[in-house]
Amino acid sequence: MQTKLKKMTQSSVFSVAVIAVAMILVMRIIRDNYFSANNIIALLKALAVTTIVGVSQMISIGSGGMNVSIGSTGALSAISAALVMQNYNVNPILAMLLGLAIGISCGIVNGLLIYRNGGVGVASFLTTMATSSVFTGITLIMTQGRGVAKVPKEFVAIGNTELGPIPTSIFFMIAVVIIFWLFFRYAPAGRRILAFGANAKAAELYGVNRFKCVLLVNVLAGAVAALAGMLVVMRVGSAQPDIGSDWMLTSFAVSLMGGTRQAGGKVNAPGVILGGIIMTVIANALVHLGADVYWTQLINGIVILGIMALDQLKNIKK
Amino acid sequence: MKKRLKSLVQADLFSVIAPIVVLSLALSCSTKGFLSQYNIYSNFQQVAIYTVVGLAQMMVLSLGQMNLAVGSVGCLSTMVFGMAMQNLSLPAVVCMVLTCLTGLILGCVQGLLVTKTRINPFIISLSLLSIYKGVALVITKGVPYSELRESFKALGSLKILSLPASFYAALVLCVLVFILIRYRKLGKKLLACGANRTAAIYSGINYTRVVITGHCLSGLLCAMAAILQISRFGSAQMSIGDDWMMTSFVVPVLGGTLLSGGKVNVFGVMFGAVLMTIIQNSIVLWKFSPHASQLVLGLILLLAYEVDRMRRNLMKRQSTSAALKKEADK
């Protein structure tokens, strides 16, 4: 029991949790209305998107790669879903499925190209950087740079209904986290992806198929990114082509803070929620404290570098 | 004859020069604007900036690493330039030196973090991208510096033989970098570290120092690109560097630098920059939607990877055939 407790307190996720709780308490002391229903709802809505974005990146990092096209995949899916609803009055559920299908297609494109460029390591970064530009280009051409304002109420309601102080988008987040927690823990495909991420060559010698692995990872990451994009539309009520433009750093920060190993092979889906809480609370705190928007970028960068440094310090101590 | 043709096709720069020639011919036949003096002038201004940005990335690529923060280093250096000139009203030369120093220091920070901490270099670069940009935003609150000295603005529109002065500056930088890579010890060390880190360390190279130097040079070149961009705009703007990340990868790869490190082609960077500029110019001249340019940029990058792979395979084949020949000679 004691060793278990010791092990728990030494894990990096534990220190992230402590930081998260401390930040929330400090905010509560500074602002009396921090726990007001409005603020909690706003926090939870932002948390849902941030966490799902982090899960998408977690899948890629776990396989030993990375994906910088999450934002553009999310934007393309969300814009497509919004456009078919506005122009052809498509049923919201069907539109959502279409959005997911677009996300999966983006994932397939990414997977095929990453495999062609080598499959592991920097290949995934370089490839997704290029495809990200392509997806953004398609989004811009489809919308001519304008947002889609006429999003049906029924679609918005899917993620933006409040059950007491809990918005429905949180249930999507919980579902995604549980699915991927189970997937990486119990599903053979999930185990194969992690093995591939830990040591691609060894995994291949054990019979893991590189092509299937890379393709599956990117399809899953694309689908999750598409969901995140559509949740943003539900939250905001309109679809802007710049959805996801700031997801690159967020996605890495959230997933790495949550205990995903940088080099791949180890993921922690519930931990991603903790990372999400930290990023959301920081963003929310900057608004509450009346800081300039300019600070956001600087602080995000410092936070991720700081957390990574903390992680390394612990490794050295061991 | 056939053999000669084959070697020409296989030559490093063929894959970038051929599309340049074809595109320029097509553009000059189908549009009036392409060969106009103004268009040529502004294209060469763009070439100069792309070249220097490409060189900055090439320095780090030669180490087998990446610098995602090129744009942010450029942005922060721009802000230093603007402050030095507008708020402190220092002479132009001092401002330029200060800007270069800023770039050097920012690059040095990245090099130190990469070598001294064990954090993933990609994550370091990514967070510095955000931190540098954030610092620039916090310092200036996004307000551009537009009251620059007339003498500096004149430099931006200076013409020599109807080409912009910035192009000559880029050319000189290319030559300097070429000498550094080809004839100085440091260049060889950079390439050795990029080609095979372990082998480089075992042959007595101070890996840490070489990596830091590479990052410093990269930061310095970013700052120089920023100066060229300021002189083109005539004001020090926040947006400088926003679109450099993709460009910085496209340009050297088109010009024959291997992404995996260990092989660079300095003048290839300039040809890569020319190709990039002509493609972007063609989007404007052929009246495609301006929104298409992002799409095209991504497609070019994907194409550049194909070229990169072809080149790698070629190198592999050549080395195996050379080895086989040696065996046979024995």
Largest sheet of chain B: 2 strands, antiparallel
Estimated share of beta-strand residues of chain A: under 5%
| Average pLDDT over all residues of chain A | 86
Oligomer: heterodimer
Tally of DSSP β-strands of chain B = 2
What's the Cα radius of gyration of chain A? Answer: 19 Å
Task: Name the structural class of chain B.
Answer: mainly alpha
Give the helix proportion of chain B (percent range).
over 70%
Fraction in helix of chain A: over 70%
- What is the H/E string of chain B? HHHHHHHEEHHHHHHH
Strand content of chain B: under 5%
Task: Report the biggest beta sheet of chain A as strand number plus sense, adding barrel if it closes.
Answer: 2 strands, antiparallel
Overall shape of chain B: globular
Strand order of the largest sheet of chain A: 1-2
End-to-end Cα distance of chain A:
21 Å
Number of helical segments with 4 or more residues of chain A: 14
Query: Which ranges of chain A are low-confidence, i.e. pLDDT below 50, for 5 or more consecutive residues?
Result: none
Estimated structural class of chain A: mainly alpha
Instruction: State the low-pLDDT regions of chain B, or none.
Output: none
Described by the principal axes of the CA atoms, the overall outline of chain A is globular
- The strand line-up of the biggest sheet of chain B is 1-2
Features:
heterodimer; A: 318 residues; mainly alpha; 14 helices; 77% helix; B: 330 residues; globular
What does this structure look like?
The complex is a heterodimer of chains A (318) and B (330). Chain A has 14 helices and 2 strands; from the N terminus they run H-H-H-H-H-H-H-E-E-H-H-H-H-H-H-H. In chain A, strands 1-2 form a two-stranded antiparallel ribbon. In chain A, strand 1 and strand 2 form a beta hairpin. In chain A, helix 3 packs across helix 13. The radius of gyration of chain A is 19 Å and the shape is globular. A two-stranded antiparallel ribbon of chain B has the order 1-2. Chain B is mostly helical and 330 residues long. Chain B contains 14 helices and 2 strands, in the order αααααααββααααααα. The interface between A and B is large, with 44 and 40 residues.
